[in-house]
Amino acid sequence: MLILTIVVILSVLIFDISLSLLNYRHRNQPIPESVSDIYDKKEYGRWLRYQMEITRLSIGSDLVGTAILLAFFLLGFFPALDRLTKTATDNAILQTLFFLGLYWLAVKLISTPFQIYRTFGIEGRYGFNTSTWKVFLADQIKAVLLAVSLGGPLLYLLLYLYNRMERQSLLAIWMIVMAVMLIASILYTRVFIRLFNRITPLEKGTLYEKTTLLAEQTGFAIRGISVMDASKRSTKLNAFFTGFGRFKHIILFDTLLEKCTTDEIVSILAHEIGHSKSKDAFKGLVFTAVQTIVFLGLFFYFLKSTALAAAFGFAEPNLGFSLVIFSILMEPIGILLGIPVSAFSQKAESKADAYAAKHTDPATMISALKVLTRENYANLTPHPIVVKMTYSHPPVADRIAALTKNLQETKNE
């Protein structure tokens, strides 16, 4: 089992690096005509340098993370962690919580230097980062406190159910996980995002009036449209839709308001409304529900393996380690699942673009996409394999080509 685990870890590493290199080597492909005006020659050269640095950092992070994980397995880190947690408490559930918490902390300590270099090094050099050390450190502390205060009790409850009911707890655990995900979606803009950002209602004015008119025309009952102070961390632009039913909410980055025209923002909002009309968030939740119960079922059959425990130096099965090793061995399945997930997501994005083109001017939506691409340094020539396996959105050239076709059809009518 140890050899199988090492093979899986190395295979995932090779796969990730291969995708990064495929995308990087594809950077010099001819730029599609539909997006040829997004960057000028000088800016495109700057984008190439940015992509080179991001790719190097990604590969370096993968190599270091994999090397440390292999060292953990080969040097007996996990059995030692198990012994440490058992000296801290006799409570089996707390032992598991401490085991997973310390492992999570170790992973975070390994990844944080790369995050710091990307934020204050690469993103700072290219003018994207606006965060300060105070904001960065506060974010890290809040994230840890949130994980401990919410994730800890939830995991305790799930472990308690498993210890009491074992495999009969599968349905109860699945239902609790899904309920928590639904509640988190509802509370995302009301609570969680406000721990990190200031959210304010969209001010009355031309944008508000046009947005309200669009909502009326599309029959979209929305609880609110708000602006988030994203500029305190980055200059990049975005907007997103969250929530279900009467809890639907659209969030605009303040950077979006600075860089886009009113009509471009309305087109972006129409795109987000298109997601709501297609019930994409609900479809995503259903897919997650199915995926979760399948993985839980597999995990439950994985837990009690004494052979697995012995192969890694444990005297008896360890619930926390079983979760760690299971997540590693399931990564290849996650990669394969990424293909239909990407296909579903890209199709949803295309439908949302078409919806926006129907209810606003397609030319304005094209203009908005070009602004988003330029300001976020999006890739104009991603490798088709990378797109198929990992992209949540179609390449911007494909999106603009589809909108251009729509625009021409509209003119011919």
Task: Describe what is shown at a glance.
By secondary structure, this protein is mainly alpha-helical. The protein has helices at residues 2-25, 41-74, 77-88, 92-125, 133-165, 170-192, 206-218, 254-259, 262-277, 280-300, 306-311, 319-329, 331-359, 362-376, 384-390, 396-412, and strands spanning 199-201, 224-228, 239-242, 249-253. The radius of gyration is 24 Å and the shape is globular.
Layout of secondary structure:
Blueprint: H1 2-25, H2 41-74, H3 77-88, H4 92-125, H5 133-165, H6 170-192, E1 199-201, H7 206-218, E2 224-228, E3 239-242, E4 249-253, H8 254-259, H9 262-277, H10 280-300, H11 306-311, H12 319-329, H13 331-359, H14 362-376, H15 384-390, H16 396-412
Parallel strand pairs: 2-4
Antiparallel strand pairs: 1-2, 3-4
Helix pairs in contact: 1-2, 2-4, 3-4, 4-5, 4-12, 6-10, 7-9, 9-13, 9-14, 13-15, 13-16, 14-16
Mean pLDDT: 88
List the strand order in the largest sheet. 1-2-4-3
Major sheet details = 4 strands, mixed
- Element string (H = helix, E = strand): HHHHHHEHEEEHHHHHHHHH
